[in-house]
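Project standup — Tuesday

K.O.: blocked on the structure for the chain from last sprint. Re-posting the sequence here as requested.
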Amino acid sequence: MQQTSWEPSTRTVPGPVKRTALNPTLRTESVIALGAFSALTLGAAVLGARQSSADTRWYRHLRKPPFQPPPKAFAPVWTALYALIAISGWRVWTAPAGPSRSQALGWWGVQLGLNAAWSWLFFGRHQPRRALADNVALLGSIGAYIAATREVDRPAAWLVAPYLAWVGFANVLNGEIVRRNPRAEH
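H.V.: unblocked you, prediction finished:
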């Protein structure tokens, strides 16, 4: 007996596409897409990590709020968040094509670009005020991504809820650093 499963598709036909062991094309396409979303997210993570260092003289001399997490906390948190971001984008991509999916994928790209820009502005350029403006835009783009994604794939929207919360917390941290260090910009 042939095994059949119903899975979302990138095809323009409405609803899920019937996939069988005799038609592995869609499954291969989906795996490639997951790799692409993972690679894009990893690229943003690597760009950010190359700029981010709590061990620079500039950063060490900043006055930070008492609720600032220890530097060792950021890598595991961001690793988990980046995995969720990649999976969420992939899930949206596997939904049937249409304007809602395109809008959600557009917001996915915007948030990823703003995410990468924050580390460059804050750590690379030593511009906490501009980084804060970027972070506010990032928070808005994540919210827009979630709103658009809810129309396409609700689990994909929920996957980035921890990311939204973390970026909200990061806004508070960044804002406090700006407030406590009025002359920190280079």
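K.O.: great, moving the ticket to review. The beta strands are 4-7, 17-20. Helices lie at 25-51, 57-60, 71-94, 99-124, 128-150, 154-159, 161-180.
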